[in-house]
Amino acid sequence: NGLIAALAIELVFVVALPIALLVRWCRRSHANLLPAVVGMVVFIVFAQMLEQILHYACLLSNNPLSRAITG
């Protein structure tokens, strides 16, 4: 199926390629992998938290800005 192939290719470019490049860079430069992993985790957690806060703020408030964003 074409959709499955497209999702597999996307997975490679979005997840596997950056991780492979990070590991290769850390091996070549003898850098520590931990700060990069911590940075990725913190980014994902904060992006998810801030997005949820914005959704709640827009859905629960009744002002012109939230009505413009939510329709």
Itemize the secondary structure elements and their pairings.
Elements: H1 2-29, H2 34-60, H3 64-70
Protein model, in words:
With 71 residues, the chain is mostly helical. The protein has three helices and no strands. The chain has helices spanning 2-29, 34-60, 64-70. The longest helix has 28 residues, at 2-29. It is flat, with a radius of gyration of 19 Å. The two termini are 35 Å apart. The mean pLDDT is 88.
The profile of the biggest β sheet is: none
Residue share in helix: over 70%
Number of helices: 3
Strand content: under 5%
| Low-pLDDT segments | none
Summing up helix and strand content along with how strands pair, one would put the structural category as mainly alpha
Radius of gyration: 19 Å
- The span between the termini is 35 Å
- SSE pattern: HHH
The dominant shape is flat
Global mean pLDDT: 88
- Total number of beta strands: 0
In short:
This protein is an all-alpha fold.
List keywords for this structure.
71 residues, mainly alpha
